[in-house]
Amino acid sequence: MRVDAAGYFISFEGGDGVGKSTQLRLLGRWIGAVTGREVVLTREPGGTSLGRVLREAVLHGEHVDARAEALLYAADRAHHVATLVRPAIERGAVVLTDRYLDSSIAYQAAGRGLGDDGVELINRWAVQDLMPQATVLLDLDPAVAAARRTAAPDRLERAGAEFHRRTREAFLSRAAADPRRWLVVDAAGDVEDIQSQIRVDLAARLDLTPVVDEAVHAGPDEQREQVEP
Ligand code: TYD
Hints:
CATH architecture: 3-Layer(aba) Sandwich
Helix content: 55-70%
Number of strands: 5
Largest sheet: 5 strands, parallel
Bound molecules: thymidine-5'-diphosphate
Radius of gyration: 19 Å
CATH class: Alpha Beta
CATH superfamily: P-loop containing nucleotide triphosphate hydrolases
Shape: globular
Number of domains: 1
Number of helices: 9
């Protein structure tokens, strides 16, 4: 039997412009080297080709009704999980996603004021309850994050200071409620310092095991079978 049957699933969360994609890339390179496993870097919205169409519609189109927006993110997530995330975990890969379900709780439930219950329900249904083993929250004052951005703001980034204050609070309270899954890091620091905090924490938390070649294990297992009655 393979000891490495299931891979790992880790999400990165936080406001816009907090450095999630940089940290995710650095972590992916390190986990790949430590475990020898396949590493899949992905994102929401837009991790699949259907997702890229949905991303364009939800971020760069005209006004979108708040419930329709929540359903578009959930639709992107359902397809992403079914076609990319779950198959990768099942073949033993490490999947790192830039945003996941908690973004919908922060942005649609808290930011748009739709409330946690309904948004959690449609998303849990969409992903058939697949949740990450670890979620890294890069926490930063939204005003500091906005000052770091260079590109033109998208629809969500234009939502206003009060909206972004609510999303930050929602991330922090969700993290406080489930410390076994969440790691909260102050994103104001230096890129390397943040990365080493994440590595130290996840190494302890996830029991990262190297991928083991089935052929290497076949020998001892077969021998044991021969000596057992
Ligand atoms: P992203 O591409 O991560 O932007 P950034 O690099 O600026 O963080 O996310 C795009 C936007 O989509 C971002 O403003 C957050 C928003 N979003 C939601 O509102 N709900 C969701 O479920 C997800 C995944 C993203």
